[in-house]
Amino acid sequence: MEFTMGGRLEVRITPADVGKRVSVRRAADVRGEGAKFTDTVGVLTSWDAGVLSVTTRNGESVRIAESTLVAGKVVPPAPARRRGPAASFGELARATARAWEPVESELLGDWRLRAAGGFTRRANSVLPLGDPGLPIGEALGRVRRWYGERGLPAYVQTSTGAEGTQERLCADLEEHGWRREVTAEVRIAALAPVGDLDADISAVRLAREPDEAWLSRYQRFETPGPHVLKVLGSGPSVWFASVPGDGPAGVPAAIGRCVVDGRWAGFMAVEVGPEHRRRGLATAVMTALARTALDEGASAAWLQVEADNEGARALYDGMGFATHHSYHHFRPA
Q1: Which SS3 state, helix, strand or coil, does residue 128 take?
Q2: Residue 283: CB atoms within 10 Å
Q3: Buried b / exposed e across 188-202, counting CB within 10 Å, b at 16+?
Q4: Is the pLDDT of residue 1 over 50?
Q5: How far is CA 181 from the centre of its chain?
Q6: Whole-prediction pTM value?
Q7: CA dihedral 170, 172, 176, 178 (to 10 degrees)
Q8: CA distances from 172 to 45, 166, 167 (A)
Q9: Taking the mean position of all CA atoms in its chain, how far away is CA 157?
Q10: Residue pair 128/111 in contact by the 8 Å Cβ criterion
Q11: What is the mean pLDDT of residues 101-125?
């Protein structure tokens, strides 16, 4: 990380740069071992009373005393991508939302309040793709009341780490007492290489609806009520994949879901039974779904993976998926 001009460290940011992506270096505590420095990259979300707040790619808000600044500069809004399809945040956010529709929704300005009986945070959170049309505190009050009327906790889904994402909103939510609970990565890749993976797909079965066997492997609910089936069935063109198990209970060894939407194919609910892992079944499910999506004209792929799911992240690394941005769910403290 280069800060110098003519051999000197310089602070080349001011409060006028709030809202821009910056890279800053600050002096850490010195405990007899010489000067130590810490670097932070993210969006400058505030600069008040001698304290800067920088929201990083993973949604963390870092507060920095102005007096500790050693260097700082404005940097491009997002690093250049070297592989995979080009995609704006807005396009991708809308495609991912269409693949996981709620049971009911209501608009608050450009915010979409979504509810589905509590089945997954994604279907029971606000999707804020613009201005709510109200001051932020009043908008959040409306959000809490709307979810409270449905007996649900209030969540707001935000995104960070790409051009046009919502670092400022993350900072506003923290200022109003909301806290980040979950962080996940939205990853994208070219679709054809996924369909070309060396995988045995002969045992993969594809269907337009999830049957009882498929639902018995899916682990996100206790009872698959109508609200669950509506969310799972939502999207322009939905496919369900399963690999039969070898036990008498009829539970599949592996399952997956794919939604084809124009050029995008979204992969979700890829699960493999613990006793069937390391047999290439997740790859087989992904490959079969990718080939079906290619037949329907898709060319790009996306998926979402929680930041602490190391096994899934390694699998998707090998398939060529790269992180486009991160998303987070905030809840009132």
Answers
A1: strand
A2: 21
A3: bbbbeebbebebebe
A4: no
A5: 13
A6: 0.84
A7: -10
A8: 9, 10, 9
A9: 9
A10: yes
A11: 97
